Amino acid sequence: MISKRKAFTTMVILVVFTAFITFSVSNMMALNIGNKMIISHEMYQKLIEENDNMGKVVQLKHFLMEEYYEELEEEILIDGAIHGMFEAVGDPYTTYLDAKDMSDMLMSTQGVYGGIGIIVTADEDGYVSVVSPIEDTPGERAGLTTGDRIISVDDEDVSGNRLDDAVSLMRGDADTEVKLEIMKRNQEKAVEISVVREIIRIQSVRAEIMEDKIGYIRVTNFDEKTASDFQFEMDELTRQGIDRVILDLRNNPGGLLSSAIRMSDLLLDEGLIVYTEDRHGNRKEEYASEGHYEMALVVLINEGSASASEILAGALQDHEKAILVGEQSFGKGLVQEMQQLPDGTGFKFTVSEYFTPSGRSIHDKGIEPDHVVRISEEELLESQGQDLELQDDIQLQKAIELLQQRQ
């Protein structure tokens, strides 16, 4: 009896091959004569080459299934081939996801998942590196900080661009323990730590009123609820007569592009928010149209502010809607899309690069603040473990000072 998974896999291969033939034939000069089609020799050769490549994959799979000294599962070979195809791209943000990882990924965009609460990326040396810990999570309480490298998870090596493997291994059921081998910044010897997983429920927006009736809004990441929660807090501040606000995006690793665009729309009266450009030069632009709030605004950023944070900060800076204070941001300017397949697996892949309204590329460059205020290494480490006291947070103090001048 043919299993549902095997039948689905066979169907996928046939659909992909048929789709290729359909796409290829529909995009060439062709002449129909009755039930025959005449195509150019060049396109005929291209079809033959592609058919040979697909045939090679199928032939090698059959060879292993028949000749390997132990019995093999066809599903594992096919999954491995698909994983390898995505890994061959050489982009840590382009990856194939099994059903569990895909489910976890979808859940995390809703602000809930089981894990330790850190955001990671692949650094220039191929190591899994911490972008920032999420506030009040096991990762933050364990002392993980921006720039820490994760060497292994539960004794499994995750170096060498194994970003998604590391993420998958760190996630899991609440109250279970995960062991990490960490190389701390500016240290030469790795250390081992054990962290107990929790259900991470991210409250991405919180607000308060500070001295001199200055509003303060902290945004920790961009999920499905962030823009609406931000609007609620801004409405509350407006209702209380607040017209000066500090927007804190420090250690905000990003999230949903749509959420950052929606927040930008709330703060900008009009104009370009961001545009993306793919490898073919196709450009997609997002514009502001609402502009709910007329407030003096200072935005705090640092090296842990990435992706969607940089989109928002860059748009506000280019339109001179806000003053940026802090340190140069992380510099992740690539756009990913995610798709789920009928069997529950899926994939994410980089589709374009984004640019600020003035045309600045952020990738590997980051956003430079208008007022550079550096926090020392010791203060940075302390701020990752718990918020600095107000008088010790010199970046926040600078923001307050700038807004006090706007009275």
UniProtKB/TrEMBL annotation:
One annotated Gene Ontology cellular component of this protein: outer membrane-bounded periplasmic space
Domain called PDZ: residue spans: 102-171
Domain of life: Bacteria
Pfam families: CtpB_N-like, PDZ_6, Peptidase_S41
Keywords, sorted A to Z: Hydrolase, Protease, Serine protease
GO biological process, one term: signal transduction
Cross-referenced InterPro entries: ClpP/crotonase-like_dom_sf, CtpA/B_N, PDZ, PDZ_6, PDZ_sf, Peptidase_S41A, Tail-specific_protease
One GO molecular-function entry: endopeptidase activity
Presence of the UniProt keyword Transmembrane in the record: no
Family: Belongs to the peptidase S41A family.
Annotated protein name in UniProt: Carboxyl-terminal processing protease
